[in-house]
Request: fold
Amino acid sequence: MKTASFFSVIIAIAALTALYFHLLAAPQIMEEDFENGFGEWAVGADVPLDPNNPGQFVEWNITRSTEVASSGRYSLRFFIDGRQDDGTIWVERKITVPRDTRINVSISFDLYSDHESQANTRAVICAYAGTRKPRTEECFIVIGNANEVEGWKRYVYTTSINTDSSEEIWVALGISVRWETRMTYYIDNVEVKIIR
Reply:
């Protein structure tokens, strides 16, 4: 009888240990399709001054839209006056993570372009993941051209981060101007996956 109880305890401990390591290794997944506002996301920008409006930055905005969507009815509409051949606009969010841990981050999302262009690059798609809030265009990594296809295309950015003493990371995604024109793109169906 005592032997059976001993083995029951050993089996229970083994099961709890396996569950612990499973939960530890389970990815942390955050999804947003902007059906109910911006969720945890906020807007950010690094744009130039407008020489036609002294003291003012070039026009830009990021708003929810029902014009096109890859998931549900809403997407985010990214507009920027790129006639100064400069400017990056994005959405960002903060995520709580364990400190002193090496994590893998994957950011994936759909981007809509109203036309395809291989001849010139009007804008590029950019993303960021790190322990500091992104503040400038230089924080971002280019992950593709915005006009690779007409319609929706999925983009993915992956990186590894050492959280050190930080208990949070920032992720962001957006567009960066490469051609002197006004431009509009749409982003939807965002997924952020963190694996420890």
